Amino acid sequence: GENVEQHPSTLSVQEGDSAVIKCTYSDSASNYFPWYKQELGKRPQLIIDIRSNVGEKKDQRIAVTLNKTAKHFSLHITETQPEDSAVYFCAARMNRDDKIIFGKGTRLHILP
Amino acid sequence: DGGITQSPKYLFRKEGQNVTLSCEQNLNHDAMYWYRQDPGQGLRLIYYSQIVNDFQKGDIAEGYSVSREKKESFPLTVTSAQKNPTAFYLCASSAGTGAFHEQYFGPGTRLTVT
């Protein structure tokens, strides 16, 4: 069945350093890959997304890369700040319907 | 205040009782979704609906039921058949089908069954 694997489950980085979260997906027909950030006690919110016809997308300190051949995509956060501490979810959207499969999440801790 | 709302924020029920969670959106979105969130499990899809009067099972539909009688509303009923109903439930909506539409999430309902 469709599956999205996300690693690591927990990540601690020093403030100012970079953080990388990686995901792989099983369905080669997937065409849309969003990333959500969920702060403690709050709802998930979209922070960046990428479509299958693009290899990389940047938005200020956040970037996402996609390797369709290998079926993996990654989130890169540079110059991390305390407010980046949260749980991050990757997801993949199946081409044939509106179903989005989420990874299990990465808890990111930014250390002072 | 526009967006997607869920009520109540916290819900307590006794084992064996059915309970219905509310989800309403005023975004004029066609698609709506229900997810269950457990610690370390991410977001697991329960049911989703792409259009009024139609819905499909997600990965963990057993013990749950939904209806989509109106575009704005997608209530979820947690039945007594759901073996582990205590969880955080998130509703979401997106603008359309067949395209790259962002999912907007509600604030969630934390259900505790004892």
Describe the structure.
The complex is a heterodimer of chains A (112) and B (114). Chain A has 112 residues and is mainly β. Helices cover 0% and strands 56% of the residues of chain A. In chain A, the strands form two sheets. In chain A, strands 2, 4, 5, 9, 10 and 11 form a six-stranded mixed sheet that branches. Chain A is globular, with a radius of gyration of 13 Å. The termini of chain A are far apart. Chain B is 0% helix and 51% strand. In chain B, strands 2, 4, 5, 6, 9, 10 and 11 form a seven-stranded mixed sheet that branches. A four-stranded antiparallel sheet of chain B has the order 1-3-8-7, with no helix packed on it. Chain B is globular, with a radius of gyration of 13 Å. The interface between A and B is medium-sized, with 24 and 25 residues.
Question: What structural category do the secondary elements of chain A indicate?
Answer: mainly beta
Overall body shape of chain A:
globular
Q: How many helix segments of chain B? A: 0
Instruction: Enumerate the spans of chain A where pLDDT stays under 50 for 5 or more consecutive residues.
Output: none
User: What is the beta-strand fraction of chain A?
Assistant: over 45%
Main beta-sheet strand count, sense and barrel state of chain B: 7 strands, mixed
Topology order of chain B in helix (H) and strand (E) letters: EEEEEEEEEEE
Number of strands of chain B: 11
Shape of chain B: globular
Helical fraction of chain A: under 10%
What letter string, H or E per element, gives the SSE order of chain A? EEEEEEEEEEE
What class, by secondary structure content of chain B?
mainly beta
Biggest sheet of chain A, open or closed, and with what strands and sense? Answer: 6 strands, mixed
Give Rg of chain A in angstroms.
13 Å
Please count the beta strands of chain A (DSSP E, at least 2 residues each): 11
Percentage of residues in DSSP E strands of chain B: over 45%
Radius of gyration from the alpha-carbon trace of chain B, in angstroms:
13 Å
